[in-house]
Every structure is written in C-alpha cells, then in structure tokens.
Amino acid sequence: MELKILYVHGYGSRGSSTGKAIEKQVEQEFDAARMLYNHYYDEIISGRQIKEVIGRIEADCREFAPHIVIGSSFGGFLATLIPGCVRILVNPCLRPSDHIRSISPDMSEADSEKLQAMEHAFSTRACDGLATWGLFSLCDELFGGSGYSELYKSVYGTERLRMMDSPHRISKAAIRDSLMPVIRLEAARLG
Prior knowledge:
- This protein has helices at residues 16-29, 47-64, 74-80, 100-103, 109-121, 149-156, 172-190; strands at 3-8, 33-36, 68-72, 86-90, 132-137, 161-164.
- By secondary structure, the chain is α/β, with parallel strands linked by helices.
- Strands 2-1-3-4-5-6 form a 6-stranded parallel sheet, with helices on both faces.
- Helix 1 (16-29) packs across helix 7 (172-190).
- The N and C termini lie close together (7 Å).
C-alpha cells in the first residue's frame, strides 16, 4: 500500500520547509509513500475565506485521498474539520478566535462569530471513529505553555496525546522523535 499524507500548514507559513522536512523523514522510512503540501492561504480576514480554504483542502482530499492529514497550528484547526482520515494535529490552534484579532485585525465581528461556530464544530469529529492525534510542545512560545493540550484532552481524551520538546514550529528532532512514531503506528494500522 502506498501511504498518502496531506500536510496543512499554519498561519503565516507556506508549509514548504516543514512539509519538506516531514516528507524527507517519511521517504526515508517508507518505500511507498507520497506527500502533498499545497499553499492554502497567506492571510485570512473573513469567514468566507476560511470556508474557501477548507473547500480547497477538501478538494485535495478527494483528489489525493490521503490516509493521514497532518495539520500544524491553524492548519491543525483546519484538519479537525476534515472527515474521513486519520488526523495528526501538531501544536494546533484549536481556538483561532482567541488570536484572530492580532493576526487579522480587519476581520468583521460577524466573521469572528462564524469562526467561533466552526470552533465548536470540531468537537463532533471526536466521534467519527478515526484517530485524531495531538502533538503539543512542552513550551509553546506562541500559545503559551502546552498550548491547547487541555482543550484537546477535553474533546479527544489522553490516549493519543503526546507532548514533545520542540518550539511551536516543529523541529526536525521532534519530527523524528514525536511525529514519525505516530505516522508509523497509523501506517501499520492501515496495513
């Protein structure tokens, strides 16, 4: 079986450097594996734009048919909204409305409320029968402390929660020591 992984980057990132680092590790460990990491957004100032980004990710999922979606930071939040595949959330921003005013000051109040409604929808994905992993930094400089790990626990429990020694942007060592073991587990489960 060819393992297919989709990577969804975080806000303010094009995802290429992290995506390439993950792809390199995956290719070293798996004979048959492909990764897709597209540039989905630069900035988001409206709920409509968020829905467009989600639509592009869903289109990639239909075309590429990934087994695993890895989402980092805001990409981790977006990954929670994608059904039908294993999700690995890396330092996910599970409540982007907490930060949206600082990164998108032009977002309207109505769009901020739409974003908050999307935040509440992610908890329903806990019941779709597929694994949702959470990898959190011990000292996330962007979201503070262990970031949104407590919120993750309240939705998904602790079985697939992992803490890692890495800054917010996942380091090559954390890719090797924290992310790759999860990918290996899921690849073995997928057969």
